[in-house]
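User: I'm putting together a teaching handout on how multi-component assemblies are represented. Below are the sequence lines for each component of a complex, exactly as they appear in our records. Could you produce the 3D structure of the whole assembly as C-alpha cells, so the students can see both representations side by side? Please keep the chain order the same as the input.
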Amino acid sequence: MTKQRQIHLAKRPEGMPSMENFNFVEADMPTPKDGEVLLKTLYLTVDPYMRGRMRDAKSYVAPFQINEPLNGGVVAEVTESKSSQFNQGDIVIGHLSWEEYTVANEKHLRKIDPNVAPITTHLGILGMPGQTAYFGLLDIGQPKEGETVVVSGAAGAVGSVVGQIAKIKGCRVVGIAGSDDKIDYIKNELGFDEGINYKTQDVYKALKDACPNGIDVYYENVGGEIGDAAISLLNKFARIPVCGAISSYNNKEADLGPRVQTKLIQSSALMKGFVVNDYSDRFNEGAEQLGKWLQEGKLKYEETIVEGFENVPDAFLGLFEGTNVGKQLVKVADPEYATLPNR
Amino acid sequence: MTKQRQIHLAKRPEGMPSMENFNFVEADMPTPKDGEVLLKTLYLTVDPYMRGRMRDAKSYVAPFQINEPLNGGVVAEVTESKSSQFNQGDIVIGHLSWEEYTVANEKHLRKIDPNVAPITTHLGILGMPGQTAYFGLLDIGQPKEGETVVVSGAAGAVGSVVGQIAKIKGCRVVGIAGSDDKIDYIKNELGFDEGINYKTQDVYKALKDACPNGIDVYYENVGGEIGDAAISLLNKFARIPVCGAISSYNNKEADLGPRVQTKLIQSSALMKGFVVNDYSDRFNEGAEQLGKWLQEGKLKYEETIVEGFENVPDAFLGLFEGTNVGKQLVKVADPEYATLPNR
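Assistant: Of course. Below is the structure of the complete assembly, with chains in the same order as your input.
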C-alpha cells in the first residue's frame, strides 16, 4: 500500500458547514524518521469546537488551514516504529491529522492500555470531554450538596459527565437535551432528576418547574435561548461554567440575546469561560478521579460510533443536528497487530 | 415647626423616569421613642441603582413602595436624642427615608467625625461608592501591575475611584465617559492614561487604539454597546466585575446585544456580578484603606451638589443624562447645632 486518504478543509464555511467544506485527497503513505512512528488511525473524534477552528480568526486553538488536513484527537496503532518508546502494535492517543495513516513524533503521543478501559474512552469520558466536564463543573461550578445543577447539551459527551458528577456530589440535576430518547437516557440510565426536551417544551417554563429552588450552577454547553432561560433563574451567588455555545457556532449574523449584566448583578452570579487546556497541569488528577468513578460504576457513558473514514464529515455535521448520544466517534479501521479485549 | 416634607414614589416609571413619578407630601414632624433620635437631613445621595428599586421586581434590594417615601444613604444631624449613644449635634449616617426630618433607631446609625474628612465623603469615596469600587476592582478584577484596566462610567462616583485604585496598583487605566470635560477630568485630575468620549467616538475602535495590549480587567458600570465593545477586546483570563448597567435601567424592551458566551470561552474570561453588600463583613477593611489613600493624597474625588430638597428628583433624573461628575448629592439643609470645619 503506497497511497492513503486525507480529509482537507476545502473552504471555510459560512453558516452551517456542509460536505463541500471537506475534500478527500489521496496522499502518499508517510515515512517515519528517527523518533517518529507510523500510525494507523483506528478511531477519531469529531467535536463541536472544531467549527470554531474552521474560521480564520484568533481563538484558543489555531485555525484549520485551507487545503491542509484537519486534525483532532485520534486513537491509533503503531504499525512501524523508529522510536525507542513505542513498539509495533502499541495503541496510542494524540492530536493528529485526519488521515488513514500518519506519522507522529514520540513526544506527541501517549500509550494507552487496552486492558484497563476500552480504547475509545480516551477520546471520551477519560479524555478531553471527561476532563472538560470535571474541571468546568468542579473548579468553576463548585457544586455543593443539595444545590440545583442545570446542564445543557445534557446527553452529549461533556454534559452527560457533568450531570453524573453533580449527582455524585449530591446535587439535584436537571438536564436539557433535544429528544425524548435523550431525556429518557439521562433520567433512566444516568440518574438525572429531571430532563427537559428543548425541542418540544418551553424551556423557561420547564426549567422554572424543574428548579423550584432556583439554579445554583448552570453548566453552559449551548448558549442561545436555552442559556438565556437558565440565566433568568439564577440563585444568589450562582455559578455558570461556560464550556460551549453550540447553538451559535454556525451563525452568520451576530448572536443577539438579552444582555446578561443586570441578571449577573441581581444574583451576584459568576460566569466564567474556559477551555480544557486551562487545566492541563491538572489532567492527571482529572483522569485519575474519572477512572476511579468509572471503575466504581458511578459513571456511565455512551458512544455513537460511525464506521468508515469516508463518513467523518457526516459525523461532524451531525453534531449540529444533535444526532449523537454521548461521544461521537468515527471508527476508521481495526488494528493490524494489536488484539483488543472483547467487551 | 410641626410639618415637614417627604418625597414619595407616586407611580412606577415605565422607561425613563420623570417628575411625575415623584410626589412631595407634607407630613407631621416625627417624634422619637426610647432608643431613637430625631434627625435633620443634611445631605442625601441619589444613585443609579435606585432606578431598579422603582420596579416591583425581586432584586437585591427591596423595591420602593408606591405612596411611601423613597430612601437611601443620608447624612443627618441629631436634633433630639432619646438614645444614650447619640447627642444633639452629632453627625450620623444611615439608610434613611427621603424627608426633611426623620426618626431612626440608634442601631441603624453610625456617628461620623466631621474633623477627619468632609461629612459628604461618607456618601461617596469613603461610603458605598468607594467600597463598591474597592471590592469590585480588587476582589473580582484582581488587577496586576502592568495590566490594562478599562472602566466605564469613569467620571462617576464609582468609576473615578476604580481608575485611581487601578493606578495605585500600577495598571494602565483607560476610562470611558460621556463628555470632553469628564475626559479632561479623569486624565488631567485623576491621572488616567487614556479617556474615551463615548458620545463622540467609536468606542470599539477607540478602545482598540487605547488598549494595544488588550483588556485584562473591564470594570462594568454601564452595559449596552460600551460593554459589548470591551468584551470584544478581552485578553486571556480577563476579569469583568459587573457593578452596573445604567444604559439599560430605563429600557422598556429587553436589552439585546451580542451574547457573551463565545467571547468568554475564547478568552477564558470571568464575569461576576456583585452588589456592595456582598462585602459587608469587610467594610472596615475598605473604609480604612480608602481613608488612608485619601489622606495620603492618592485618591481624589469630586462631588456634584445640588441644593434644596425640592431638587432631589431632578438630581436623580440627571444621573441618566450624565450631568454629574463624581458623586451626585443633594444638600438639604445646614446643621442646627453642629459646627462643621471650614475647608
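A couple of points students might notice: Chain A has a mean pLDDT of 94. The interface with chain B takes residues 58-60, 220, 223-224, 227-228, 236, 242-245, 248, 254-275, 278 of chain A (CB under 8 Å).
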